[in-house]
Structures are given as C-alpha cells and as structure tokens.
UniProtKB/TrEMBL annotation:
Key words, A-Z: Hydrolase, Metal-binding, Zinc
SUPFAM superfamilies to which the protein is assigned, alphabetical: Cytidine deaminase-like
Phylogenetic classification of the source organism: Bacteria, Pseudomonadati, Bacteroidota, Bacteroidia, Bacteroidales
Pfam families found in the cross-reference section: dCMP_cyt_deam_1
Tree of life domain: Bacteria
The keyword Iron-sulfur belongs to this UniProt entry's keyword annotation: no
Organism: Prevotella aff. ruminicola Tc2-24
Residue intervals of the CMP/dCMP-type deaminase domain: 20-157
GO molecular function, a single term: zinc ion binding
Annotated protein name in UniProt: Cytidine deaminase
Similarity-based family: Belongs to the cytidine and deoxycytidylate deaminase family.
InterPro entries, A to Z: APOBEC/CMP_deaminase_Zn-bd, CMP_dCMP_dom, Cyt/Deoxycyt_deaminase, Cytidine_deaminase-like
Key word Hydrolase present: yes
Length: 157
C-alpha cells in the first residue's frame, strides 16, 4: 500500500488586492446577507455569482420550519443563475456570512459539502474552473476551482 498526498493550495488576500469585478462580487455577497431568511439559525449567508456575460446573480440562505426544506445561499444563487441563464458559464462565486451577533464572520466562510457538489456541476457545465472568493473580515480566500476544496470528485463519466 502507498500513501497518496492530496495537496491543495489556495490564496489569502485583502479586498483591495482583488480586481474591481471581484471586489464588487464580494460586496454583493455581503449585501445579500441582509436579505437572508434565517429565523431558525440566525446565521445569514450571502452568495453572488458572476457569469461569463457579466451578469451577477445573488442568493442568500432560505430556511424552513421543516429544516431540510431550506437551501444554502450558494445553491440559491447558482440555481437562480442556471434558471435564468442556462447556457452562460459561471466564472466566479463569492460567499459572505453574518453570525448570530449580526457581524460579518471574521474567518472566511466556506461552502458546505452539498454546495461544493453543486459547484462541481456548475464547473462541469462551464467547462472551466470557477474562481471562488470566501469572504472573512480577517482575509479573503481565493480558490481557483472547486477541486481545491473537494478533491476526488465524483464523476459519472
Ligand atoms: N448555510 C449556507 O447558506 N451555506 C453554507 O455553505 C453553509 C450553511 C446556511 C444554511 C442554514 O440556513 C445556515 O447557514 C446555518 O447552517
């Protein structure tokens, strides 16, 4: 038996170091936290997607009294983009969150496993990696391609 190392390198930076488009997408994700419907967890997540045609689509978590019926911010944004622009590739995704204290998270917020799986599908459709921007007050993680967050992805083909 041999061990195989799965290595993943991501970047950490500050808002000013991002391009204007990236900064704008992060701002949209932050703004979207204010429209989150999270009466149960009080954890407000915002997401914003930038498509190849320059259109930006936002999403925020939508909770439900029957808990599994709710949906994360990332999937709300990605599914909305897919519903409106089915043939336009997703280029970037920004995520931000406010905790129960109403403050933006200090550490960058990372997508849950189900959202990672949906991001994989968006990359497959786009036929290229998606740049993922994870906002935290401390720093922003810049991740080029979901495989860095979810190695050994399931592929049907
Ligand atoms: N949530 C997201 O919106 N995105 C994630 O990637 C993780 C969790 C939401 C789901 C739920 O409404 C709240 O955060 C607390 O888990």
């Amino acid at each position: 038996m041999e061990s195989i190392e799965l290595k993943s390198v991501i970047m950490a930076c500050h808002l000013e170091e991002l391009t204007t488009e990236e900064q704008h997408l992060v701002e949209l994700a932050i703004e979207a936290t204010n429209r989150s419907y999270a009466p149960y967890s009080r954890f407000c997540v915002g997401a914003a997607v930038r498509l190849a045609n320059g259109v930006e689509v936002v999403g925020c978590n939508q909770e439900n009294v029957a808990y599994p019926s709710g949906l994360c911010a990332e999937r709300t944004a990605l599914f909305s983009a897919g519903a409106q622009y089915p043939d336009t590739p997703v280029e970037m995704l920004a995520i931000a969150a406010k905790g129960t204290d109403g403050e933006l998270q200090y550490e960058p917020i990372a997508p849950c496993g189900s959202c990672r799986q949906v991001i994989i599908e968006a990359e497959t459709r786009a036929k290229h990696p998606i740049r993922i921007l994870l906002y935290g007050k401390k720093c922003i993680y810049v991740i080029d391609g979901i495989e860095k967050l979810m190695p050994l992805t399931f592929s049907e083909f």
